Amino acid sequence: MTYIEHLDDKFNFGKFTGCTFAEVVEYNPEYISWVVENVSGDICVFGDSVIEELQLLFPQFEISTDFEAMRNQRIVEYEDLEEGYNENEDFDEHGFYDDYEQPTYGRYTGSYAQDEMGYSDDDIDTIFDGDPSAYWNID
Questions:
Q1: 111, burial (CB in 10 Å: exposed 0-12, middle 13-18, buried 19+)
Q2: Distance of alpha carbon 139 from its chain centroid, rounded?
Q3: pLDDT number for residue 31
């Protein structure tokens, strides 16, 4: 995700990966408009500060009402993504959804199924219908 807030911020996607916003405007200003029109807010967003800097240093760059409307839409997409990520789901360090729960071994402590065979409380509830003495019935 690229959130560009200043002219010296770099792109981390596309054909201008590693280039600063200012370098892209100088070399290919149409690319900035193309990004706003075609790239979703979960990939790239241009913040208000970079647009202000753009207008000051590159007054020839035209910022139309359509450009601003699309840029604002991308900001909303980005904010929606951030809210959803932070509030609704837990991800592990690799970005995968983490719903793994550690098994418990408390309710059936002292039973052969748990102490000798290693079945967790959830295993005994599921496999043996909550009866740890039914371990002998496993084929």
A1: middle
A2: 44
A3: 95
